[in-house]
Amino acid sequence: MSLLATWEKAQPAIKTQVGPTTYETWFSPIQITEKNSETLLIETPDEFFKNWIIEHYSQTISDHLGKISGAPVHLEFS
Q1: C-alpha to C-alpha distances, 24 to 11, 67, 74, nearest whole angstrom
Q2: What is the DSSP letter of 21?
Q3: Which of 47, 46, 53, 48 is nearest to 26 (CA)?
Q4: Whole-structure pTM over 0.85, yes or no?
Q5: Which of 71, 70, 60, 74 is nearest to 27 (CA)?
Q6: 32, β-bridge pairs
Q7: With bands split at pLDDT 50, 70 and 90, how would you rate the model's confidence at 37?
């Protein structure tokens, strides 16, 4: 399974964990690119947004992606 497919499969669980309003605020605006077979690039609208996602949600994202893929997924933010 590609990392983009893994990302899509993780979205319902992430939305359930963070709540629908928080999900719409912080996850809807981001863009995802598969940098390579082990790394997802998470593109955010601005520096504040990037730092907020890293500080508050990077572990949640990593946990859900790892559960689905069965291996750690590296995240990069821009």
Answers
A1: 11, 23, 23
A2: H
A3: 53
A4: yes
A5: 60
A6: 42
A7: confident
